[in-house]
Amino acid sequence: MGVGAVLVTRRRIARRVAALAERIAESFGDEEMTIVAVLTGVLVFLADLLRRLPTRIRVEVVSLSSYPGAAVQSRGPSFRLWPVGDLVGRHVLVLDDILDTGQTLACLLDRVRSLGAASVRTCVLLRKNCPRVERVEPDWVGFDVPDAFVVGYGLDHDGLYRNLPDIRVLEAQDDAGGAP
Ligand code: XMP
Q1: Residue 66 scores a pLDDT above 80
Q2: What is the C-alpha to C-alpha distance for residues 180 and 177, in angstroms, rounded to an integer?
């Protein structure tokens, strides 16, 4: 596997993140926001979005994995870490990198609601054009993308490529090099 064509450039990402931050800030108004972010793919998106949000914000992180190791097919979400922070009465923004089968977001929404959040809104950077296992629609979406495995801007394959500034498609390749 190696990295292929650029799907979303760093400039488009920056513009879209700024626009998303405006919409999200507008929606939360004066409410204190608690972001529940899904590691690890959301790391760069979280950092960029966070610095553009003006409201009072707390950040909790959860760790979930659907693509362990070199997998490119979802194996379904499994929690590795859940935050201890109290969500009772909080206005939560669940932030994820990609909406794929919908299982991760559905699972998180259930969990956050069951912990007594006052409201839950959702934002994903990418929404894949593929059939959903769970019917969930995020409140905010960065980009609609084709059903291909993507890397860069925090997204990895087998732990690699998170540092690429653009979002790229992962491609099968003949040589064993794998370098971008
Ligand atoms: P589900 O299927 O639960 O999956 O909606 C969402 C999670 O799966 C990961 N995912 C990807 N990660 N490139 C990645 O690096 C991809 O193309 C990809 N598709 C899904 C992602 O972590 C997301 O939270």
Answers
A1: no
A2: 9
Least Cα distance to 18 among 57, 40, 45, 55 occurs for 45
pTM: 0.90
CA dist 94 and 111 (Å) reads: 11
Q: Quick one: which atom of ligand 1 is closest to the CA of 156?
A: 15
Closest CA to 143 of 2, 3, 33, 45: 45
Sequence-distant (6+) residues with CB within 8 A of 50 are 35, 57, 59
Tokens of residue 106, six digits: 């559905």
Whole-angstrom distance, CA of residue 124 vs CA of residue 64: 15
Report pLDDT for 64. Answer: 79
- The residue from 96, 97, 100, 156 that is catalytic is 100
Ligand 1 mean position, distance from CA 50 (Å): 21
What is the 127 CA–ligand 1 centroid distance (Å)? 10
Q: Cα separations (Å) of 36 from 66, 105, 139, 169?
A: 17, 11, 15, 27
